[in-house]
From TrEMBL, chain A:
<protein>
    <submittedName>
        <fullName>Sarcosine oxidase subunit alpha family protein</fullName>
    </submittedName>
</protein>
<dbReference type="Pfam" id="PF01571">
    <property type="entry name" value="GCV_T"/>
</dbReference>
<feature type="domain" description="GCVT N-terminal">
    <location>
        <begin position="612"/>
        <end position="880"/>
    </location>
</feature>
<comment type="similarity">
    <text>Belongs to the GcvT family.</text>
</comment>
<feature type="domain" description="FAD/NAD(P)-binding">
    <location>
        <begin position="176"/>
        <end position="437"/>
    </location>
</feature>
<dbReference type="InterPro" id="IPR006222">
    <property type="entry name" value="GCVT_N"/>
</dbReference>
<dbReference type="InterPro" id="IPR041117">
    <property type="entry name" value="SoxA_A3"/>
</dbReference>
<dbReference type="Pfam" id="PF17806">
    <property type="entry name" value="SO_alpha_A3"/>
</dbReference>
<keyword id="KW-0560">Oxidoreductase</keyword>
UniProtKB/TrEMBL annotation, chain B:
<dbReference type="InterPro" id="IPR038561">
    <property type="entry name" value="SoxD_sf"/>
</dbReference>
<protein>
    <submittedName>
        <fullName>Sarcosine oxidase subunit delta</fullName>
    </submittedName>
</protein>
<dbReference type="InterPro" id="IPR006279">
    <property type="entry name" value="SoxD"/>
</dbReference>
<dbReference type="Pfam" id="PF04267">
    <property type="entry name" value="SoxD"/>
</dbReference>
């Protein structure tokens, strides 16, 4: 493809730097400074895709980020393999560079011949609300017909098939003034805001060159200089200021609370020479003192039959292509307008060599100076005319136009042959970010637009985004928003337009397609139907027809849809409402949002000091809170069941070694430490002797069990508290809360020491034998070191806090050593313990062993509605203490009511059957549904030590029902079980004192 | 994301904090002397004002201190943050609706 439509000179392209892009397998030629859209137009290619619903041929509508139609799949780094392609890139914002591989979307077998275009003929079934109407019935059609067929036929682009191979980065920034948009208003604001050098200023613009609309302007002058010379000078001034950061290719897409603005910067997509590893995009999270919105405005399309034919474009976009990119979007141009600004397009296009005529909806009397300028320039202007329809299929070939008489009737039709149409229905200020900031919009009748009303944050809008269109006024407005002032002398802009919603026609409105929303294929007919069916609020019309709900957020379509609904209902436009604008302003890649938080960094895994040993020794891991813990250590040929049976057996017969490092640990220190413990826990602490341990139970103020764990008193003023693995952070927070807010008089400090200590549990009859050779300064003898005591000394020469405790019911020690020594001590104990039959066990065996003893796990037996008494632990609740957290709640009527759910054991009739945890329990499986549930299973295991399955359950009034038969749900139906005591092994508790 | 002015550290992003609900609800001196209904109110009943609301906040991923804040529930503006134990500052609603919170 050569460039037959490239003008011989001019434009903001660098003709010394030619480049090529692969488009649908063919070479497309262009220059640095081009977009893919301008290259397509240079080659004469207007057909750029098929539409969402009807598969209609679509071209390029716009030159900016509001483009709804020309959506391309782009492989940014085809030379680097898979993972660099993404769909739905707007051709108008994809900066051209060597090596891009782009393809059109939504067609099969090809762009030119698309089978899906049959949808255009079947369009009666795709009317407004067709999702709701079509998919109602029959049910089974949903999976087999609607879903697969319609998903294939409709939709935009194809999701990437492999994971994104690119890198994305993330950056936080602070500034005094953030300016969004580097058009004349934004540049003037930046100049003013940065003038005294005091304020840190960030100026961000979504384009790759600053200037905004001035980039398309070859006639305007500012203070006697061409407009772009003013832009260049201003940018140079700003560049030279240390306090200004200019960010091109950076879209502010979200405006959140407290002036938190999120922006995405395209870092390397435009660089053919981008080194591998350079981030593709960077997410900026900016916290700004003040925000100046200078986001410009969007041109409105006109609504007439076949207004979506390729070659029909927005008028300002035609001007942009002709002037900025030096390409002609055709030879024969008709400008259709109700807006003065389009006359500038006509004049510039004519100057560039296109044959031009103008069709103006307005009457002569309603036009300004632009009319005589055009006529004097030799352009035929048909005022008071409407467009009946566009001719042509894959490219517009003509327009049927007609005069509208004073009584509104349509006069004699004329066909104007053309290959390009520039349309303008006026302008809509871009209030998206203002609206996101929760500012209140105000409808301005003169401007026929919503403009910023009351601000909700420290923010100001300037220029076209608040309806200021004349160039001198725009610059003055920007300077003012930046905290300064400026009175430039600039060329007077052609401004003002007459609002039109749907162009008058004598055609049967129910038979024609005049598009309002190009991206979601919503026509004027659809909106009329929705209103006829009773949808009157724009929010309802929007959801029913999907107008404005595509990825372009209705930038080009919103006002036409609103105006049409208001017109049909004969209500003032604001009475119909405006839609809420939500982030993102333009689509944002998931990559940018996620940044580096993927793979290993997505949800970082906490590992214990002994984790490397466990991995080397074949552990199967499970996640517990943020930790990964060894679940079991299978030997060759073992499944989990076999491994756990072996591990639990070893603990009861020889000795097991277990990594308990994840236990939460908090040190409570200070003269009032015992008093603090006394208030936080249910049991008594004042009399616990130094060197003693106690199982502590902690309630919330509402009386329900919050956490539990063994606590050791290391000194008069020092407690070593353990918590559940998952509960450590919230227990710490809970303790700090009371200490800081209720009892600030207590002299206590809390320190999290979870990460500081590795914990190695030795459990089983041989535990002492394993430990003895390595201990110094501690006497391990039964009478010197009884159950539930703590001693400090050395293990393997390493300082240690040695706990004589057991979560298995066996003789047990928990060896706490500084984390850095954890693995070394573990290895030593494990290797030297071989002769005593030492066996590593994981969390699954730990669970089985504690369940055999009837020990609870907070969060498994409890669910935030369980009391100590429900668990059979009322003995741990002090009757003597006058107060502790949760005490008062224990006497509330519901807490002492009969029939509360209580912890019991369940023994299945079939000893080999293992119940499901969470299974529901009923008395009578024959009762009608819905059945009365009397409880649920909380823990359930196969126990090799008991020679059968065991389960714990919470049952209504359970402790009074020992021995009764109940029925438990299983996937195969109900099964029988007998309620038992929740202790299954060593009921007398003898093994622990060995 | 809110920007919260910790009285001890200064302005920090919301993700560093944890909200602890309504402030200035004192735990009774001797809970066992409180009637059931009053204890129920202490546990569960909270105001839900439109406008200024005094809340407890914990700078958990920072200094670890609890403090109180006056937040406008309509605009999300933080009108004041103050140390635990200090009385609720005397501010009128008009201050809260000011857009300046930077
Ligand atoms: Zn702090």
């Amino acid at each position: 493809m050569s460039q037959p439509f490239r003008r011989p000179s001019g434009g903001r392209i660098d003709r010394s730097r030619p480049l090529a892009v692969t488009f649908n397998g063919k070479q497309l030629e262009g220059f640095a400074g081009d977009t893919v859209a301008s290259m397509l137009i240079a080659s004469g290619q207007h057909l750029a895709g098929r539409s969402f619903k009807y598969h209609r041929p679509r071209g390029i509508l716009s030159h900016g980020s509001d483009e709804p139609s020309a959506l391309l799949s782009v492989d940014w780094r085809a030379d680097r393999g898979a993972g660099y392609r993404d769909p739905n890139n707007r051709a108008s914002v994809v900066e051209a560079r060597d090596g891009l591989v782009v393809n059109t979307q939504n067609h099969w077998p090809s762009l030119e011949t698309d089978v899906g275009a049959v949808n255009d003929l079947l369009s009666p079934i795709f009317v407004a609300g067709f999702y709701y109407k079509t998919f109602m019935w029959p049910r089974k059609f949903w999976d087999r017909v609607y879903e697969p067929v319609i998903r294939k036929a409709a939709g935009l682009g194809e999701a990437p098939e492999v994971r994104d191979a690119d890198r994305y980065s993330n950056r936080h920034a602070h500034c005094d003034v953030l300016i969004v948009g580097a058009g004349p208003a934004g540049l003037a604001a930046a100049l003013a805001a940065s003038a005294d050098g005091e304020k840190r200023v960030i100026l961000a613009d979504e384009g790759f060159e600053p200037g905004g609309a001035l980039l398309n302007d070859v006639t305007s002058e500012i203070d006697g200089k061409p407009a772009m010379a003013w832009v260049a000078e201003t940018v140079a001034t700003l560049d030279a200021r240390e306090n200004v950061v200019i960010l091109p290719r950076t879209t502010a897409f979200g405006y959140y609370n407290h002036n938190h603005v999120c922006m995405v910067e395209r870092v390397s997509d435009h660089r053919a020479d981008a080194p591998e590893g350079l981030a593709r995009e960077r997410l900026w999270q900016v916290r700004a003192g003040e925000v100046v919105l200078a986001a410009g405005s969007h041109e409105r399309p006109l609504v007439f039959e076949n207004n979506d034919r390729p070659g029909i474009m927005l008028a300002e976009s035609v001007r942009a292509f002709v002037n900025r990119w030096a390409v002609l979007p055709g030879n024969e141009l008709v400008v259709v307008t109700s807006s003065a600004s389009a006359y500038r397009t006509a004049l510039d296009a004519k100057a560039a060599g296109m044959r031009v005529s103008i069709v103006d909806i307005r009457l002569d009397a309603d036009c300004g100076t632009e009319l005589s300028l055009a006529r004097d320039g030799g352009i035929t202007v048909r005022t008071g005319h409407t467009v009946i329809k566009a001719l042509g299929g894959k490219r517009v070939t003509g327009l049927v136009v007609a005069p509208i008489s004073a009584n509104g009737s349509i006069g004699e039709k004329t066909t104007l042959a053309c290959d390009c149409v520039a349309m303008s229905g006026g302008w809509t200020p871009s209030v998206h970010l203002f609206s996101q900031s929760r500012g209140k919009l105000r409808f301005d009748v003169e401007l026929d637009a919503f403009v910023p009303g009351t601000s909700a944050q420290a923010e100001r809008s300037a220029g076209a985004c608040r309806g200021v269109y004349d160039l001198s006024a725009v610059i003055a407005d920007g300077a003012k928003a930046g905290g300064g002032s400026s009175t430039p002398q600039a060329t007077v802009s052609f401004a003002g337009f007459q609002p039109v919603r749907v162009l008058p026609t004598d055609a049967d409105a129910t038979k024609i397609k005049a598009f309002i929303d190009f991206q979601n294929d919503v026509t004027a007919k659809d909106i009329k139907l929705a209103v006829r069916e009773g949808f009157e609020s724009i929010e309802h019309v929007k959801r029913y027809t999907t107008t404005g709900m595509a990825t372009d957020q209705g930038k080009t379509s919103n006002m036409n849809a609103l105006g049409l609904v208001a017109g049909i209902l004969d209500r003032p436009l604001p009475a119909v409402g405006t839609t809420t604008f939500r982030p993102p302003y333009t689509p944002v890649t998931f990559g940018a949002l996620i940044g580096p938080a993927r793979d290993e960094l997505f949800d970082p895994v906490r590992r214990t000091p002994i984790d490397p040993w466990a991995e080397k020794n074949g552990a199967v891991f499970e996640p517990v809170a943020l930790w990964r813990r060894a679940k079991y250590f299978p030997q060759a040929g073992e499944d989990m069941h076999a491994a756990v049976a072996r591990e639990t057996k070893a603990v009861r017969t020889t000795v097991g070694i277990f990594d308990a490092s994840t236990l939460g640990k908090i040190e409570v220190i200070g003269p009032d430490a015992a008093e603090f413990m006394n208030r936080i826990y249910t049991n008594a602490w004042l009399k616990l002797k130094t060197g003693g341990c106690r199982y502590g139970l902690m309630l919330r103020e509402d009386g329900f069990v919050y956490d539990d764990g063994v606590v050791a008193r290391l000194a008069e003023d020092r407690f070593h508290v353990t918590t559940t693995t998952g509960g450590a952070p919230r227990v710490m927070r809970h303790m700090e809360d009371y200490l800081q807010t209720e009892w600030p008089d207590l002299d206590v400090f809390l320190t999290s020491i979870t990460e500081q200590w590795a914990v190695i549990a030795l459990q089983g009859p041989n535990a002492r034998k394993v430990l003895e050779p390595f201990v110094s300064e501690i006497d391990l003898a039964e009478d010197a070191f009884p159950h539930m005591t703590v001693k400090t000394g050395y293990v393997c020469g390493v300082p240690c806090r040695l706990f004589r405790v057991s979560f298995t019911g066996e003789l047990g020690f928990e060896v706490n050593v500084p984390a850095d020594y954890g693995e070394a001590v573990w290895k030593t104990l494990y290797e030297k313990g071989q002769k005593h039959g030492i066996t590593p066990y994981g969390t699954e065996a730990m669970h089985v062993l504690r369940a055999e003893m009837g020990f609870i796990v907070v969060g498994q037996e409890t669910d935030g509605t369980v009391t100590a008494d429900d668990l059979g632990l009322s003995g741990l609740v002090s009757k003597v203490k006058t107060d502790f957290v949760g005490k008062r709640s224990l006497t509330r009527p519901d807490m002492v009511a009969e029939g509360r759910r209580q912890l019991v054991g369940l023994l299945t009739k079939n000893p080999d059957e293992v119940l499901d945890e969470g299974a529901q329990v009923v008395d009578d499986p024959g009762q009608p549904i819905p059945m009365k549930m009397i409880g649920h299973v909380t823990s359930s295991y196969a126990s090799s030590n008991c020679g059968r399955s065991i389960a714990m359950a919470m049952i209504d009034g359970g402790r009074t029902r020992i021995g009764e038969t109940v029925f438990v749900t299983t996937p195969a139906g109900f099964t029988e079980a007998v309620i038992s005591n929740a202790v299954f092994y060593d009921v007398k508790g003898e093994t622990v004192d060995a | 994301m809110l920007l919260i002015d910790c009285p001890y550290c200064g302005k920090r992003p919301e993700v560093e904090f944890h909200c602890g609900g309504e402030a200035h609800i004192a735990r009774p001196e001797m809970p066992t002397a409180v009637e059931d209904a009053d204890w129920g109110s202490f546990l569960y009943y909270r105001t839900n004002p439109k406008g200024l609301h005094a809340e407890r906040w914990l700078h958990g991923h920072g200094c670890g201190r609890w403090f109180n804040a006056l937040r406008d529930t309509v605009s999300d503006a933080f009108v004041a943050t103050y140390e635990m134990g200090k009385p609720r500052p005397d501010r009128d609603e008009a201050t809260a609706s000011s857009p300046s919170n930077a």
